[in-house]
Amino acid sequence: MIAPVEEIVSRIDQLTKEELNELEKTLANREKPGEEHQRLVNAIEKTSKERFGDWWRKALKIGIVLGLLALGFIIITYFTRREALAESTRKDEFGADVGYKVEQYRYRDRVLLSFNSGSASSLVYDLSPLSIDKMVQQSWLSNGRAIYLNLSVKPDSKTAALPARIIHDFQRGEIYVYSPLSLWRPNSSTNRWMSEAEFDGVLARFGQ
User: Fold this and answer.
1) Which of 39, 130, 138, 189 lies 20 to 30 angstroms, CA to CA, from 24?
2) Is the CB of residue 84 less than 8 Å from the CB of residue 99?
3) Which DSSP letter does residue 160 get?
4) 197 by DSSP, 3-state: which?
5) For 146-155, how does the pLDDT look when each residue is reduced to its tens digit (9 = 90+)?
6) DSSP state, residue 187
């Protein structure tokens, strides 16, 4: 063995039993962390817990905000997303831009029929809770003075499609409708609804 180690061993051999016990306790205490070391360990553990807690709270807040934004986007999309099924614009006999648009909501049984009269004004009719099965015909009448629309409309998924024939006179702001469905018309006015023969007479008057 190395000389200093031999000397230490020699001195240990000379110790009494009580002295050996005291030496053993001293060495055992030295193996344990001191007060400064323990305070440092406690401070590190406390800081880690606080930082983890702060991170968790921030992550939770960010998650809630992102969840609310996603929910808002879904709600807005559900209520506002729509696509144009048919639209057209042209100049009438006076050179004014007139047109129409048929829009159906993507996720709801709702249809909007709008007519632009060339000025700042426009008419919008809500056909809900109907859906458009197909556009049968659209024709401009009297050099763009009026538009004729022949739609196939379904009141629900279980019912066969029914006709909805519409003429809008842009010049006079009048609309003529034939359909067994109420469309936007109140049910209380059924006695004044136009018959198909009457509608065909108006269509002939416009030169169809």
Assistant:
1) 39
2) no
3) P
4) helix
5) 899 999 988 8
6) G
- CA–CA distance from 121 to each of 32, 91, 114, 116 (Å)? 88, 16, 11, 7
Q: Is the peptide bond before 129 cis (omega within 30 degrees of 0)?
A: yes
The one-letter amino acid code at 114 reads: S
Distance CA 176, CA 194 (A): 8
3-state DSSP assignment of residue 18: helix
Of residues 199, 200, 147, the one with CA closest to residue 172: 147
The phi, psi pair for 60, rounded to 5°, reads -65, -45
User: Could you please report the per-residue DSSP string of 55-82?
Assistant: HHHHHHHHHHHHHHHHHHHHHHHHHH-E
Contact 166, 203 (CB under 8 A): no
Between CA 29 and CA 180 the distance in angstroms is 99
Residue 165 structure tokens: 């024939």
